[in-house]
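Slide 14.
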Amino acid sequence: MRILFATPVLPGRRRNGGELWSQTLVDSLRRNGADVTVLGYGAPYAAGEVSAGPRAVETRAAPLRALGWAVQAIGRNAFSVQKWIGPAYRRALAGQLARQPWDAVLIDHAQMGWIQPLLGGLPLLYLAHHAEAQLYMGLAEQTGALGGSIYGREARHIGAMEQALAGAAVRSWCISDADAALLAPHAGERVQALPSLPAMALQDSAVPEGVADVALLGNWRWQPNHRALSWFLSEVRPRLPRTWRVAVGGAVDRRRLPDTGGVDILGPVPDAERFLRGARRIAVPSLARTGANLKLLDAIASARTVVATREAGALVGTLPPDVILAPDAETFARALIDAPAPPMEARAKWLAARVAQLDAAVADGLSAVREQLRQRA
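Slide 15: predicted structure.
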């Protein structure tokens, strides 16, 4: 089966959680025998990737472009959609559609829903990274009047895009049961939560000397993650031993964090796997309620003791029995202090079960595409 995987940014490098989730599905499709071509912005890195050219979309990297996208979006699109629309992608997509007969197109991210009218009625698969409308509604409720208005508008427009994709797709795949429930009114039984996988291989390794006592890794500039890190530093860190070294890796705005002693704010780390395995314990203080906490999966694969919030665990699903989910700051800190080393055999069985579950669900989706093609023939 020939699948065109249309994504915003080529995911082969797996530089962040979004790219990891995309590449996880590419890999599963291929394990199920599909011939997958991945179309996206950026330089090709992995097999089967085709570039639609460069595209800087971060507001900090392209402030004037961001202003232009905001103006273009007025009255018709979410800003998070408008920033991906461009003639270079249109040309690259048209070239791929003309190159060979495709059996289906997978639209990766709701923000790429703008290409749906260009696909000529090909069977559609939809891969969600969040229940986007719900995410922006939550941000609207947490900000002031101006921010609430901006995020509320974003929620309405991206919500309409989500509805169109979920309503048309043979299968809508998402990353948690919570997101599946939010998409179900538009997709019915055609929506399914898939188990996400860690970026790193599970490996049992000894803890080296002179490492951090606790490590935290994430994109802390994202508002829900920033709130989570602020909570950890202000509520959990003071309950840990003063002599402990806490290392925080990932992009972060230091100026907006609580002033807490005994914490090394390292910024982006070149090797996430090495960073996580260079600590005795991993803390995952997520407060988000949509998507899935991919950093929790990496923490589990790191062969280290893992303590997470209940919110993080709820978005991942079944966890190894040794992973501790803490309901409050005091319990979180106590678990970090007292938790024993993890049993790696149990973690290996847990990971193997997730891979099998993922591949079975993807196989079912491909069968649904074949059935739609048969009915059209």
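Speaker note: The chain has a mean pLDDT of 86.
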